[in-house]
């Protein structure tokens, strides 16, 4: 059972070396931060690697860091790591200018919505989830997915249709409600 804690208490406990609290933080933030990194990098594996490295660096520096906002620290660290990674890539342009990426962290409502979307994706049947992630996160075309998974393109199309229908049914009322 997860016990609600304030950010200050989480920072204090992690600074003392509480691995359980650190793991809770990692589990609760990983998906959101990975999606945030993916927006910059368009590469799921690289985004996940960046987030993992940010958490490793945080753990290594936990005693020296004096944080006002843990969420801001993690989001900024991921953003900066993504920008550094993009600078290492050939043909780097100003990412913010080119793609209109978010300068600041997401609002609480956006974070909640992203979390709900990721949760809904994880609750899909395994094959549907795999197909959806390959299409939407990894950027594969339906034909490529079919080839990689050894299934027909029609199966990929059907599974994507079901995945998108599920997400639409789940989130259209939620989005409409937030606009009111």
Short description:
It is built from nine helices and no strands. The protein has 180 residues and is mainly alpha-helical.
**CATH architecture descriptor name of the largest domain:** Orthogonal Bundle
Structural class: mainly alpha
Overall number of domains: 2
Hey, roughly how much beta strand do the residues contain?
A: under 5%
Report the major sheet.
none
Q: Kindly report the average pLDDT value.
A: 80
Q: From N to C, what is the helix and strand string?
A: HHHHHHHHH
- Bulk shape: elongated
Individual helix count:
9
Residue stretches low in confidence (pLDDT < 50, at least 5 long) are 92-101, 175-180
Protein name: RNA polymerase sigma-70 factor (ECF subfamily)
GO molecular function, one term: sigma factor activity
Domain RNA polymerase sigma factor 70 region 4 type: 116-167
Pfam families: Sigma70_r2, Sigma70_r4_2
Describe the structure.
The chain has 2 domains: 1-106, Rna Polymerase Sigma Factor, Chain: A; 107-180, Winged helix-like DNA-binding domain superfamily/Winged helix DNA-binding domain (Arc Repressor Mutant, subunit A, Orthogonal Bundle), CATH 1.10.10. It has 9 helices and no strands. It has helices at 7-15, 19-41, 44-61, 70-88, 95-99, 108-122, 126-136, 142-149, 153-179. Helix 2 crosses helix 4 (70-88) and helix 8 (142-149) packs across helix 9. It is elongated, with a radius of gyration of 18 Å. It starts with 6 loop residues before the first helix and ends with a helix.
